Amino acid sequence: RTLLFFASMCAVNVVAMLHNFWEQKQTIQLNGAFKSLLLYESAPSPGPPYICYVTLPGGSCFGNFKVCDTQAEARRDAARVALMNSLVNELPCRRITTRFITQSLQQAVSIEDACDSGTSIGTYSLLLHSYIGRTMLEFQEMMTVFQLLHWNGTLKALRERQCSRQSVIAYYSQRSLDEYMRSSLALDWLGREQKSPGRLGEELQVAQRELVLARRQGIELRFYKEKTDILSLALSQAYIHHRPEASSPTLIFHPCLPYHLACQFLHETDTCVNSRVYCWLDVMRQSLS
Questions:
Q1: Is 80 helix (H, G, I), strand (E, B) or coil?
Q2: pLDDT by residue (tens digit) across 78-117?
């Protein structure tokens, strides 16, 4: 029945359905208030195939899975992917529970290490426990911040400055991806470009390929989309900085509008779940140990 329902969405106004879903959800959460935070972005293209991204409240990003000949079709397909994931995220199996945490940690490391907050596994365990009752999508949104900080080298720099793991986790687990953080990350990459000309372009090409592959696989896109936008911002500032008449660059981030398809979620095995766990653990191990 569930698969038939998802199939039937091809014949309905999925853009309106997605809006209504989040309107009702936020109305309940905000005691009658509604704050529309569904954002769409069409990637610049001189012609088909067209690409569209949609960002949900909280920041999760989805893109059109199909090859689309029109911008309207790309927008509908992005909304369809986002709606399927939004609905599946409400299922009980997508909630973080003590049983899920125990099973995940048992397959990753010994429980003894997980009970020690001084280890990367212990920190990860604490983060999971702080999200008990919340969804995997909400946890993913928080972990995206740490993924970006790991990719950018910020976590490594903080470790070298002897910042404690607990203080870093406490601070960044409460931070959202805003203009200030994006500009700060872009400035770091601008500095790397000045030291090694051409590095930004190479890194951007890699990020763009990763984004294309991720979108075609139907997975959650925010990490890949944010990387691409941060590098694009840094590269644009690098060009301005090298213009003879340019003054000192001022980074002003132009907000991007930045998970698996429903069938993938519904048939997700423990191995797939654990692959994400290992990814998050890898961030903790490499940058916060």
A1: helix
A2: 999 999 999 999 998 889 999 888 887 776 665 445 555 5
